[in-house]
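As a warm-up, study this chain.
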Amino acid sequence: METKLKEHLIQIAGRLTPESTLEDVYEQLSLLADIEISEQQEQKGQILTQSEVEKQSKEWVK
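Now compare it with the structure written out below.
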């Protein structure tokens, strides 16, 4: 996990501009973390099909 954090920070640092803010860095780090989690879930088969999502969302909206 620590290695991934360093990789993400280096990746973000390469895209910083003089106008970048700390909030920009946090947003990018959060996005990269979310993508990583999603990829791990996909590898574990923890995904839903479109029809499963539609079915569940209808149940939530009742």
